[in-house]
Amino acid sequence: MASSLLLFLLSFLILITSSKSTPTTITIPLSAPSFTKLIVSSKKPWGSLNHLASLSLSRAHHIKSPKTNFSLIKTPLLPRSYGGYSISLNFGTPPQTTKFVMDTGSSLVWFPCTSRYLCSECNFPNIKKTGIPTFLPKLSSSSKRIGCKNPRCSMIFGPEIQSQCQECDSTAQNCTQTCPPYVIQYGSGSTAGLLLSETLDFPNKKTIPDFLVGCSIFSIKQPEGIAGFGRSPESLPSQLGLKKFSYCLVSHAFDDTPTSSDLVLDTGSGSGVTKTAGLSHTPFLKSPTTAFRDYYYVLLRNIVIGDTHVKVPYKFLVPGTDGNGGTIVDSGTTFTFMENPVYELVAKEFEKQMAHYTVATEIQNLTGLRPCYNISGEKSLSVPDLIFQFKGGAKMALPLSNYFSLVDSGVICLTIVSDNVAGPGIGGGPAIILGNYQQRNFYVEFDLENEKFGFKQQSCA
Ligand SMILES: *[C@@H]1O[C@H](CO)[C@@H](O)[C@H](O)[C@H]1NC(C)=O
Ligand SMILES: *[C@@H]1O[C@H](CO)[C@@H](O)[C@H](O)[C@H]1NC(C)=O
Ligand SMILES: *[C@@H]1O[C@H](CO)[C@@H](O)[C@H](O)[C@H]1NC(C)=O
Ligand SMILES: *[C@@H]1O[C@H](CO)[C@@H](O)[C@H](O)[C@H]1NC(C)=O
């Protein structure tokens, strides 16, 4: 979180035409741009639950039999100017609606909680200055604190926690000792609170009693609650026993507007798991260590820029047993992150192929993005294609607006970020984080049943 940098930049939308001068470049006309807001949020990859431990727990538990055949739940996913995408969920009896960042890079679901919720450094554009709306357990008849002996306390803290439930050892059955507070460190910011059992309600679809949720009473740099969609047992997909979930992220040009797309939760019940035609697939890899068990690892084999295969060393592409390296898909990261050695290769290749344009050094210094070009004098622009090639042959050819953005009048920058540290970052972790900016206008699915990631380009708005 030390590296957390929130630059609030005005950017223009790049309009792309289909005219291509060569198969590996995209040519864009410099037509009248329209305004869009853009937040640069650098999220480091090593943020995760502090207290991780290995444990086994079946995914689907406490699922009440549905009134109707619950198979698909669609809920609006809204682009937000803090750099993420937001969903609303209803917890409690009667239900209280709270907003959450949809985050595939973490697992606990938590909301800002109680009237005494404190949030430090939480001034985000278009987030109410009068205080972030909070969930009030007092007003819910279904709110229960998680007890120290509750298996879900061990699920979060590991089996060692049982040794700390001393009160329970003496009073045996009627133990009032509760599960200790959780503290979660994210790449940017953190949160702390108490674990609750609550009812999660999808109106007219499904009611899930006894859902494990965090009641956060203190946070740093959190615009909303977080709905963890990661791979650990406490995540929303795990607790609901989802077979699949999918989304299609609309452009950040629609940030803080009512324009949304659907987040689709698929339990596979009723008529079975839905199928989408025309997808490219790549398998999810096993997490290299339990410390990174939240993450959806995919194997990125090649980065192709124009005609050039960037020669990324193997150790960055394949996660090692030490947990370093590899690529994850993270909806909670804005711009794709690449560890410095990888990023340098990518940035240098763009610099080489775009050497005839004027570098905007001042903007580079100001934004931390690189390369940036002043294209105000140009009549047209040729930018090399950027293609991510995954295991199994799946190719993600990014639309130009997913990797170059106009960040100042007449200046475009590559929207990929890095830390400026040589070698693996502190604490290691994934070398490449595929952020939401690069996922926009792709239909993306997390097929949990078949352990694979699927995608196809489409317009999401
Ligand atoms: C546990 O508490 C309940 C209600 O508070 C009480 O009725 C019961 O006798 C207690 N049982 C034990 C073993 O203390
Ligand atoms: C729900 O599914 C079951 C079997 O999967 C079927 O027998 C039943 O008719 C379905 N009910 C509705 C309301 O569709
Ligand atoms: C950008 O930063 C570099 C290194 O800090 C410095 O040498 C250079 O003068 C700066 N350029 C501008 C235009 O601010
Ligand atoms: C870009 O170049 C134009 C001249 O072609 C200049 O007027 C303008 O100030 C430059 N913009 C930046 C941000 O450097």
From TrEMBL:
Gene3D superfamilies (UniProt xref): Acid Proteases
Signal peptide: 1-21
Catalytic machinery residues: D103, D330
One Gene Ontology biological process: proteolysis
Domain spans labelled Peptidase A1: 85-456
Entry-linked PROSITE patterns: PEPTIDASE_A1 (PS51767)
Pfam families noted in UniProt: TAXi_C, TAXi_N
Keywords (A to Z) from UniProt: Aspartyl protease, Glycoprotein, Hydrolase, Protease, Signal
Gene Ontology MF terms: aspartic-type endopeptidase activity
Entry GO CC: extracellular region
Domain of life from the UniProt record: Eukaryota
SUPFAM superfamilies tied to this protein: Acid proteases (SSF50630)
Family as reported in the entry's similarity comment: Belongs to the peptidase A1 family.
Protein name: Peptidase A1 domain-containing protein
Organism: Populus deltoides (Eastern poplar)
Phylogenetic lineage: Eukaryota, Viridiplantae, Streptophyta, Embryophyta, Tracheophyta
